[in-house]
Amino acid sequence: MPSYSHSDTYPSLSAFVASIRAGDNEATAELYRRISSDWYYYILRAAGTDTNEIVTEVFLTVWVAVMNNRLREPAKITGYIRSTIDNTCSELYKRRARARRREHPLECARKLEHNSDPLADCERAEAKSIAVKLMHTLHALDAEILLRFYVGEESPLEIMRALNLTPTQFRLRKSRAKKKIIETAAVFRVRAEAA
Hints:
2 domains, elongated
């Protein structure tokens, strides 16, 4: 995490914030540079891929806070930047989760595929067609639980929070869905062997 004590241009962080508030374009450009380069790896680790979107959103949030005099202690702008990044990334995760909930569960599984080996692609395509048939036999919520748990490797606690389930509901839905998948897979296997 970057920490700033002073520079040649700005003797303190308070002076830096005061320069931004006074409308100094160089100070505003310096704020953007600090967020986009000094905080880049922190943002990358927290957000994943959408770093440019996060940098812009964080910059605008911090800049508006400085301009509206909402920073209680201007010398602690570094902490404010960090908490803004954390809050922005949290909102990004929530938006992604809402988008995933609106998607069909199998679309989420397709996004996780990255291999380009032809034999593996063929095996995956066959497994996918079976998985599609199996998943269509499940309730959408049950399918999402299984995908999040087995494909997305999310913890039960994360899944329960995201889907607003109690521990009992999660355990029952997961075990019943898994049992139904195993039973349905056995029927498909018998049909395939008979054909």
